[in-house]
Every structure is written in structure tokens, then in C-alpha cells.
Backbone:
């Protein structure tokens, strides 16, 4: 039963790591992997000395912080609210509706965003215009780019993200709640002293794993949302790799950027896990 999963990780996760060596070569498809010239850290020096590096890092880091601060707590809050519902049919109905957006393609989500927020007949802007205010260019104004992208992630993934936390809540011993009632605890006391400690380890582990993807902002979403007017705040590492690697054929240079992202994610996981262990949590390893 473990074989398919092991094969997946070996074929698609571990074997491709060998090709990271082209970040240290001037890779030319005609010469092949071994025939291409070894250049050492030349691509890294070029990348870190390029002024665009700090722009990419700033844009990616800000979006990542938005996702962690604004999005990460929401599945926990929604799971706690769902756990308090006692009418089962209503609870299942709410779960169904909030799970559905997860199964929408990001292309569909961006399409819905364009239909709703465009200045040419968009529902939101028509409402703004109806109130006597000027229409807002949500899709082209740089100041609106990050909130729009973050709201898309929140709408699409919050409901589905509650599954793990609901599973953790299902493992809480009901006798703890009964005993607390006898001791005079109200619902707030039960939430704070029983429910929250029960899912604390799950929250810590998921946060550590989330930090491993700190610089992953979602390539498809960024590519679809970026335009000429908001590119200054929308260009991130993922889109930069696409432009340089796929459209311009700079395979070694784009691999360097991807390797940098992976190293940052690894360091964040190691540091976060170390801090979690020092604070008495189990951590990832």
C-alpha cells in the first residue's frame, strides 16, 4: 500500500533534485547536462546583484505575510465555529457550501473576480457608482492587487482548510466537556481550556509546514492577475522563473531562482521547528 506513494516521491520529488546542478552550469540543451560548462556561483551572483531581486523578494514576502497573518488563522476560527454547531444537518450544509470553492480552478476564481470587479459593468463597481462614488480600478490599481489576491485565497481555501482542524477536534474526549460543566465552566471556558489546547499541536505543525512554502505565492494566480499597470507589485519569484526559464530559455538562471526559494523554505522550516521544540511542542521532526 505504501509503494505508490513512495514511487511518487522518488520519481517526482527526489530524482528531479539531481537537475538542480544546472544552477551551477551554463546549461545548453544542445550540449546536454554533462556537456554544458560549469560556472559555479555565477548565476547566484547575477541574481543577487540584480536590482530586481529586492523587488521580487519584497513582493513575494509581503504576499506571504498576508497569507500567514490573514488567511492561516481563518480555517482554525471557522473550524471552531463549526464545532460549536449542534444541529448536524445545518453543520453539514454549511460545510458543503464552504468546501465547494476549493474545487474551482484558479482560472475560474480569477474569472469571477474580473466579472465582479471590472469597471465595465462589474457588480461591485456598479454598486459603487450607484452610491454616487467614482468607479474603482480594482484590477489595475497597484494598491488593490495584494488585497484582491489575498481575498481570492481566503474565499477559495478557508473552508477546505477546516478539515484537518475538525478532525483534530473530533478526537477531543467528550468527558472533558462534561466534567468542566460540573465544575461550572461555560462555553467560552471550554473553548479556551479544552478545545484550543487539543488542537494546539496541529496548529503548530501546519504553521511549520506552511513556512516551508513561504515564498510560494501561486504561479497561476499571479500570472492571471498581473497586468502592465500592477506588475510593479505583482511580479514574484514564480512569475520571474516562468519568464526567464520558459519564455526566454534561461534554464540555469531560472533554476537558480527556484533553488533560492527552496533553500529559504528549508531554513524557515528548520528554524520554526527548533523554536517549537524549545517551547515544548512536538514539531515536525
Residues:
Amino acid at each position: 500500500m505504501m509503494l505508490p506513494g513512495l514511487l511518487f516521491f522518488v520519481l517526482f520529488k527526489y530524482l528531479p533534485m539531481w537537475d538542480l546542478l544546472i544552477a551551477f552550469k551554463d546549461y545548453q540543451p544542445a550540449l546536454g547536462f554533462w556537456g554544458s560548462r560549469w560556472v559555479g556561483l555565477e548565476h547566484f551572483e547575477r541574481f543577487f546583484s540584480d536590482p530586481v531581486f529586492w523587488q521580487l523578494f519584497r513582493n513575494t514576502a509581503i504576499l506571504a505575510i498576508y497569507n500567514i497573518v490573514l488567511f492561516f488563522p481563518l480555517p482554525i476560527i471557522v473550524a471552531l465555529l463549526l464545532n460549536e454547531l449542534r444541529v448536524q444537518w445545518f453543520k453539514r450544509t454549511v460545510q458543503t457550501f464552504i468546501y465547494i470553492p476549493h474545487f474551482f480552478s484558479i482560472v475560474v476564481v480569477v474569472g469571477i473576480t474580473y466579472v465582479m470587479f471590472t469597471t465595465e459593468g462589474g457588480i461591485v463597481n456598479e454598486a459603487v457608482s450607484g452610491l454616487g462614488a467614482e468607479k474603482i480600478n480594482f484590477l489595475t490599481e497597484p494598491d488593490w492587487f495584494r488585497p484582491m489576491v489575498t481575498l481570492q485565497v481566503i474565499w477559495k481555501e478557508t473552508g477546505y482548510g477546516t478539515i484537518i482542524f475538525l478532525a483534530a477536534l473530533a478526537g477531543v474526549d467528550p468527558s472533558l466537556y462534561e466534567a468542566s460543566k460540573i465544575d461550572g465552566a461555560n462555553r467560552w471556558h471550554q473553548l479556551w481550556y479544552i478545545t484550543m489546547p487539543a488542537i494546539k499541536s496541529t496548529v503548530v505543525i501546519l504553521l511549520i509546514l506552511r513556512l516551508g512554502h513561504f515564498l510560494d505565492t501561486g504561479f497561476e494566480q499571479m500570472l492571471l492577475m498581473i497586468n502592465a499597470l500592477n506588475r510593479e507589485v505583482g511580479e514574484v519569484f514564480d512569475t520571474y522563473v516562468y519568464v526567464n526559464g520558459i519564455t526566454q530559455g534561461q534554464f540555469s538562471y531560472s533554476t537558480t531562482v527556484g533553488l533560492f526559494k527552496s533553500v529559504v523554505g528549508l531554513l524557515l522550516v528548520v528554524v520554526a521547528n527548533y523554536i517549537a521544540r524549545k517551547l515544548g511542542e512536538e514539531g515536525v521532526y
In short: The domain at 36-278 is CATH 1.10.3720.10 (MetI-like fold).
